[in-house]
Design brief:
Elements lengths: L21 H23 L7 E4 L11 H15 L4 E5 L1 E5 L6 E6 L2 E2 L1 H11 L4 E2 L6 E6 L8 E8 L8 E2 L5 E6 L2 E4 L2 H9 L6 E12 L2 E12 L5 E2 L2 E8 L1 E3 L14 E2 L4 H7 L1 E4 L5 E2 L3 E10 L17 E10 L6 E8 H8 L2
Length: 352
Amino acid sequence: MSTRVKPGFSEQPYKGSDYLDNAQYILKQILEGKYQRIMQFISDGQEEHLWLDFKENSDPTRPGISGDDKKNYAKALSGFSNANGGVVVWGIKARKESSHSPDVACESKPIMNVKRFLTDLNSITGSALVPVNNGIQNQIIFVDNDESRDEGFVVTYVPETDGLPHRAMCRENIYYTRSGDSFYMLEHHQLADMFGKRQKPDLHIFYRLQKRQVGDKFKLELIVGIENKGRYLATYPALRLKPIQRLELSRFGVNGNSGGWVLFPQVQSHESIRDQGQLFSGGVNDTIYPQTKLEVAVLDSTIEIHRDQYIFEVNPNTTVFLFSYEIFCEGCPTKSGEVAVTEDKLKLFIEL
């Protein structure tokens, strides 16, 4: 099934912020753009895809949610929880442009009595899904961003989970997953695999800043590594790093020694390092335990900074340092993205 995406959201991991997956990025953009972002979905003809779904409530003028709304809600919670997470925007009509195309946002259908609709969704969140996904959020986007009007849209955010599969309740009693732009009932073999699957770690990039004095100036270093926020071991971890803006890879390990590598830098050509980044990989004895961090490499700044350079007003949208990453480990999909260190973060660190 096609997952082509029209202007609006890419299906590639979010570029340019710290540690956001695709569903989190979509939620962030909606909450920042509010009503204007909802309207942009429609003007752009935004397609539904793996992380984004549009829903109308069964009767926009009727207070609260209907039985059909409950079933649609439970189905979406199950499907996104059992896949890669996602966002549902309630109050947008979507239809196919052709028999072979995904549904696209085509008309605004704001919900009257939207506060009651939100309350009803929240009230069934704990019973619409078994087991419960504790990360589910529902938030209102008001028409014209006017909170005095009880009319608008509801945005449902569903994170991916790493536990047992989730079953849709509310008279559904079915396990769903998300594929392309639709929800599908899990096949028996898929369900058996999910119940018996090896549990996965939850790996994220992290960094910390440290200063190195150079006369009356100083240079910054970013100590970059992998954090396991999950409940399961990460084996054979690897990290690819590519400096993009005002950074370069240090030839020393995190302990300051040229041989002090936690994950070993692989031998690569200069062209490969330039185009793809340096790969640091671990072996059979390298494990990242749950709720722990592993510092891997140092990125040196290519600029010197005066202490008073960021004392005055800064622009939080201005990027000072930027690097891209890819995280790997045994039995897990690759995670990739970019991390930006902005002026405001740098100022907070310098003032410490």
